[in-house]
């Protein structure tokens, strides 16, 4: 069996370059996020934890108290970068799959019906 030393070195160099590029991008993203957060006004919000996965990822329901806009916030675990992303509530509900985080949100929505006492709700328009 013959191994081309130049090819192996090239692959190793490419892999190391890829790792360095990824680390640089991560640092750049973190730096950009800090700059945005420093210049941004804090908006009052409410947040309710929906689900925490075995690997430490967290999903929560978050509402902007000024605009009323609701998002599902995903916080990735630290080993995978710890990035935070928001997805609109409607978009989250219509995306494929029925993962445990979506099941938790559906249970929360269902609990609103369970806790509603008869006669308190307005009838639906005809």
Produce the secondary structure layout.
Elements: H1 5-39, E1 45-52, E2 58-64, E3 70-75, E4 84-88, H2 89-94, H3 100-115
Antiparallel strand pairs: 1-2, 2-3, 3-4
Radius of gyration over all CA atoms, rounded: 22 Å
Strand order of the largest sheet: 1-2-3-4
What best-fitting shape do the alpha-carbon axes yield? Answer: globular
Main sheet specs: 4 strands, antiparallel
Query: How many helices in DSSP terms?
Result: 3
Features of the shown structure:
126 residues, alpha+beta, 4-stranded antiparallel sheet, globular
Describe what you observe in this structure.
There is one protein chain. A hairpin with a 5-residue loop joins strand 1 and strand 2. The chain has a 4-stranded antiparallel β-sheet with strand order 1-2-3-4. It has a domain of 68 residues. 45% of the residues lie in helices and 21% in strands. The protein is α+β, with helices and mostly antiparallel strands. The chain contains 3 helices and 4 strands.
Give a short synopsis of this structure.
The protein is an alpha+beta fold and about 130 residues long. It has helices spanning about 5-40, 90-95, 100-115; strands spanning about 45-50, 60-65, 70-75, 85-90. It has a domain at about 45-110.
């Amino acid at each position: 069996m013959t191994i081309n030393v130049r090819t192996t070195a090239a692959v190793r160099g490419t892999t190391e370059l890829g790792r360095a590029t990824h680390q640089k991008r991560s640092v750049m993203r973190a730096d950009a996020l800090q700059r945005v957060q420093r210049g941004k006004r804090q908006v009052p919000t409410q947040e309710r934890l929906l689900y925490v996965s075995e690997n430490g990822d967290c999903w929560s329901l978050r509402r902007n108290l000024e605009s009323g806009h609701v998002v599902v916030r995903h916080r990735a675990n630290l080993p995978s970068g710890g990035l935070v992303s928001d997805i609109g509530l409607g978009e989250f509900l219509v995306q494929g799959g029925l993962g445990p985080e979506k099941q938790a949100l559906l249970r929360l929505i269902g609990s609103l019906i369970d806790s509603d006492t008869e006669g308190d709700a307005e009838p639906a328009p005809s």
